[in-house]
Structure formats: C-alpha cells, structure tokens
Amino acid sequence: MAEEEKKKDDGEKKLSDRQTKLVALTALLLAICATFSSLKAGGLSNAAILAQSQASDQWAYYQAKSLKENTYKVQMDAIKLHKGQFDTAQAEKIAAGYQEKIDQYKQEEQEISEKAKALEAQRDRSLELRKGFSSGLTYLQIAILLASLTALVKQIMFWYASIVVGVIGAYYFFSTMMLM
Fold first, then answer.
1. In angstroms, what is the C-alpha Rg of the chain?
2. Which helix (H) or strand (E) holds 73?
3. Predicted confidence pLDDT, tens digits, the chain (180 residues)
4. Staple 169 to which of 9, 125, 139, 176, CB 3.0 to 4.6 Å?
5. Distance between CA atoms of 69 and 100, rounded to whole angstroms?
6. Among positive and negative, which fits the CA dihedral 41, 47, 50, 54?
7. Which residues of 75-110 are buried (b: 16+ CB within 10 A; e: fewer)?
C-alpha cells in the first residue's frame, strides 16, 4: 500500500514529456525576450550618458560665451564712465563694436541653450524608455526562474505562474518597443 501511494505521489509530481518540452520552450522564449530587453536597456543607458555629456559640454560652451559677453559689457560700461577722456566719435565706434559682439554672443548663447536643452530632453527620453525595458527584464527574469523551478520540483503551477509573470514582462518589453 505504501508503495502504491509513493508511486501515486511520484506520478503527480512527474511532468509529461510534452509538458517538460513546453516548459523548456517557455523558458527559451522568455530568455530571448529578456536578452533583447537587456540589450535595449543597456543601449538606452549609454545613449542617456552620451546625451548628458554632450549637454554638459554645451552648457560649458554657453558659459564661455556668457563670460565673453560680460567682458564686452564691462568694457562698454568703462567707456560710458570715462566718456570725457575719449574722442566721442572713436568711443562711439568702439562701443558700437562692443555692442555688436554682445549681440552676437547673445544669439550664440540662445542657439547653444536650445541645443543643450534638446540633448537633455533626449537624455530624459532615453532614461524613460530604459525604465520600461528594465521593468520588463525584471519580470522576464523572474518568469525564467519560475520556469526553471517547474523543471526542478515538477509542479505545473510554477509553469503557469511563469507564464503570467512572463506575459507582464513581455508587455513591458513590447509596449516600450512601440514607444521607440
């Protein structure tokens, strides 16, 4: 009698060959999605770092232009303060040249600022997309672990759980892909 119960327990735990193959196929598909999700998340992280670096460079360039602009403003103020010490025509000519440079730097600062802000927006977009792929990757890895657990303990409920968790991970992966 004890032998029959043992055989019955073994029979309940034993997965059929078909089920074992389905578990392995599920784990394979989940691993493929996880690989692509990992690659996408890594690529977006690199893109975010590059965009941040380029934005920082643009802001440094902006500051350099701003310093030059301020230098010309100080020179114009000096000319205004010492008007009587200069030939008026010559002082106005120099001041006009300074004003031209100030206007040029203001225009360049505007262009540089717009480029830096665009790079920051690109960085933020990359980081937002990376979150979707990273979330998908997390769920996919958990699903792979559950599928592996199914094969170890021979309990079909873990396979069902891996499918549910895998669908959530695949949803994150594919919905983020659609946003790209």
1. 33
2. helix 17-81
3. 455 555 445 445 678 889 999 999 999 999 999 999 999 999 999 999 999 999 999 999 999 999 999 999 999 888 888 877 777 788 888 888 999 999 999 999 999 999 999 999 999 999 999 999 999 999 999 999 999 999 899 999 999 999 999 999 999 999 999 999
4. 139
5. 10
6. negative
7. bbeebeeeeeeeeeeebeeebeebeebbeebeebbe
Three-class DSSP category at 87: coil
Q: Which amino acid is at 54?
A: Q
* Per-state percent for the chain, helix, strand, coil, to nearest 5: 95, 0, 5
Q: Which two tokens stand for residue 29?
A: 């598909």
Most distant pair of Cα atoms in the chain: their distance: 121
Question: Degrees (nearest 5) of the Cα angle 31, 45, 110?
Answer: 155
